[in-house]
Amino acid sequence: QAGDLIELDGTNLPTSVVNTQVLFNSRAGIVQSANGTVITVTAPPGTVTTNPTCTGTNPAGTLQVVETVPISVTNIATTCNVVAAQSFSYELPCVIPAP
Asked: How does pLDDT run across 67-83, given as a tens digit for each residue?
């Protein structure tokens, strides 16, 4: 969700916050820490803001996926980049349509 603290684990990741860029699709996350194997980043808002219609037997308020995006990590110092396709999902509470 937007505002959640996300941990990205890997190898050969940037070693400092200043050299780290994390994009959720094209929206920048706020990098909190980076140490070469773990990046901690705050997820930015998604582009979908309309609550979805509840599917199946989901009661109103159930979180449902409204958008799935790639996450891109770039080391600004070296320009090395890696993309994890369709790796982050935004959810919003569903609503039951009026009859």
From this structure: 999 999 999 999 999 99
Based on the number of CB atoms within 10 Å of its own CB, is 69 exposed (0-12), middle (13-18) or buried (19 or more)? buried
pTM of the complete model: 0.88
- Please compute, for residue 95, the number of CA atoms within 13 A of its CA located in the half-sphere on the CB side: 7
Distance CA(85)–CA(80), nearest Å, equals 16
Q: Do 76 and 57 touch, CB atoms closer than 8 A? A: no
Q: Give pLDDT < 50 ranges for the chain.
A: none
Q: What backbone torsions phi and psi does residue 34 show, to the nearest 5 degrees?
A: -155, 135
- Is residue 69 within 8 A of residue 26, CB to CB? The reply is no
